[in-house]
Prior knowledge:
- The chain is α+β, with helices and mostly antiparallel strands.
- It folds into two domains: 3-27 and 103-193, PH-domain like (Roll), CATH 2.30.29; 32-99.
- It has five helices and eight strands.
- A hairpin with a 2-residue loop joins strand 4 (111-118) and strand 5.
- Helix 1 packs across helix 2 (61-69) and helix 1 (29-59) packs antiparallel against helix 3 (71-100).
- The chain starts with 5 loop residues before the first strand and ends in a 6-residue tail after the last helix.
Amino acid sequence: MRLAAIDRMTPSMPDFANLYVTIEQLPARRTTGILLGTLMLFAAALLSPFYMIATTALADQALRDAVSTRPIASLQILTGLAFWLVLLGFPIYRLLNTLTRGRTIEIADGRVTVVDQAFGHATSWSAPMTEFLGIAPYLRASLSGVRHELVLVHPDRSRSLLIAMAPRLMQSELDQVASALGLPELAPQMLRERPLAAA
């Protein structure tokens, strides 16, 4: 899950002094639901002419005869239908994927375990804490406001993890987390300047 997609975290500022930390992360579901509903209405409006043509063709023998004598016209209609299904289907799939997505991060015994869920399917990966480069504070600004994030930085950017977020992170909190995890504090630029590791 992309770090920017995470909207809610429980707990938002875990106590890393504990031997076992579990973090639940979810994307913005309200906004995604509104976008999905709007897109579904738009799709229904665009695809309704195809539905009307199909119901008329099934009921009217003369129209079926006309379609069978001019197959190019029916091919044009089918091409238009396929175009709209592909154009609308991909964003609908992505929004449904976002609605069902979630992540659980467990930090215990010097190991990080991540379980990602989407569409009822779960994938997981695990890495020792020593594989991570450090922690980096990051300031994220969006339409909903500004939030401070703390990212566990991995050499493979896709495995970097959001481990804390708050309206404001103090330097003393960063020092406590770095000490508890046994990792150095990194500059925020590390999140953007690191190349993706080869897969």
